[in-house]
Specification:
By secondary structure, the chain is of the alpha+beta class. The chain is built from ten helices and ten strands. The longest helix has 28 residues.
């Protein structure tokens, strides 16, 4: 009944006997363990194989130097190093002739082991009652100072495979490019610049592409010469405002602080940003190929965005400080390089979502809107 289990009733809860139940479970666990467990003991001087956790080979030969615990020991390896290993990480070296070799499978017993053991038993010349001396253990400081014991160090193998092929290709392309192409490559390879390529097209959310816009965007992104036009980036402000609404920040658009102030230092004002202090977000788009900062843009990614951010702080910091606002410029270059600090972290904290998820969503939509605005400006100029 009930798969061999005894039915339980309300009377079973009158006298709880938890200790006997736990003792019975532990007894069953011990019986299952002892059924297949093998008792292994090691002594000082035993030739063993110690498991290697630093690459190849999987096992290194050595000798037991000391017993540090009931199931742990200190082993001196063939190269002079000393390691501490558990009993489960040590295997007995059944063939002393292979003490200087590294074996991938220490469980494999050589055929010569049985013959050598039989001969040694038949020709044992040790007097009765005397204990044969254990091999001496010498602690060395380095491999160079290791004594001559007949052990041969395994040759150190370094992989010849290139571990950063993409970086090597980028460096080669960067070195053979013109200054304008270098600034372009640095900007599009910066964090979040290519986020628009991973956005899933969705017509219902306005994240789809027209064929002509996408073709122009790819040409412009790859650096193919296309006509230039005047872009309108007000959609970046609207997208950021939507994200602030989703984070329950109650944002306000185009706030100036004074009735006669037309400079409007806050494109988006979040009244409750950090600890109840409002934050004035000033979104701006600057050209990657700005003549004033072009020399630095050819060497350092994001130079144009950082220069525009410093300029925004110099203009708006004093005004925002008088109003009790925190001035946070959000500057992006035309090729998508952002100058941001902890924006996604703050929004993810307010929304209760992982930072990576919020970062991918906000930068994906902002990057898509930026590239789409550039492609539409190019199309409108060519008409």
């Amino acid at each position: 009944m009930l798969l061999g289990r005894r039915p339980r009733s309300h009377l079973d809860f009158l006298h709880l006997d938890i200790s006997s139940k736990v003792a019975k479970s532990q007894e069953l666990q011990k019986e299952a363990h002892d059924h297949h467990a093998k008792l292994r003991k090691f002594q000082v001087g035993d030739l063993v194989y110690a498991q290697n956790f630093q690459g190849s080979p999987a096992w290194n030969p050595g000798v037991v130097a000391a017993i540090s615990g009931p199931l742990s020991m200190v082993i001196q390896l063939h190269d002079g190093r000393t390691v501490c290993r558990h009993t489960d990480q040590v295997n007995l070296n059944l063939d002393p002739k292979l003490v200087g070799t590294n074996r991938e499978d220490p469980w494999e017993v050589p055929t010569s082991t049985v013959q050598d053991t039989t001969t040694s038993i038949g020709e044992d010349k040790t007097p009765a009652g005397d204990t044969p001396p254990l091999p001496a253990v010498t602690v060395v400081d380095s491999v160079a100072n290791a004594p001559e014991t007949g052990m041969h160090l395994a040759p150190f193998r370094r992989s010849s495979r290139n571990r950063h092929p993409h970086w090597c290709q980028f460096k080669k392309l960067f070195d053979n490019s013109t200054p304008i192409d270098r600034a372009h490559l640095l900007s599009i390879s910066s964090p979040h610049a290519s986020a628009w390529l991973s956005v899933t097209p969705s017509p219902s959310m306005g994240l789809h592409w027209e064929l002509s816009e996408f073709q122009v965007a790819i040409k412009w992104w790859l650096g193919i010469p296309v006509a230039q036009g005047q872009s309108c980036f007000s959609m970046l402000r609207d997208i950021f405002n939507d994200f602030c609404h989703s984070a329950c920040l109650a944002p306000q658009l185009e706030m100036s602080g004074w009735s006669r102030d037309r400079t409007r230092p806050a494109d988006v004002l979040a009244p409750n940003w950090v600890l109840g202090k409002p934050a004035a977000f000033d979104l701006s788009v600057t050209s990657t190929l700005n003549a004033q900062i072009f020399q630095e843009a050819c060497v350092t990614a994001g130079s144009a965005a950082m220069a525009a951010q410093i300029r925004k702080h110099r203009v708006n910091d004093e005004r925002c400080r008088d109003l009790g606002w925190a001035c946070i410029p959000l500057v992006v270059e035309t090729y998508g390089c952002w100058a941001l600090s902890r924006l996604a972290t703050r929004l993810s904290t307010r929304q209760g979502c992982p930072t990576s998820l919020v970062s991918n969503e906000i930068f994906g939509r902002l990057s898509l809107a930026l590239v789409r605005a550039n492609s539409r400006a190019i199309l409108s100029h060519s008409l």
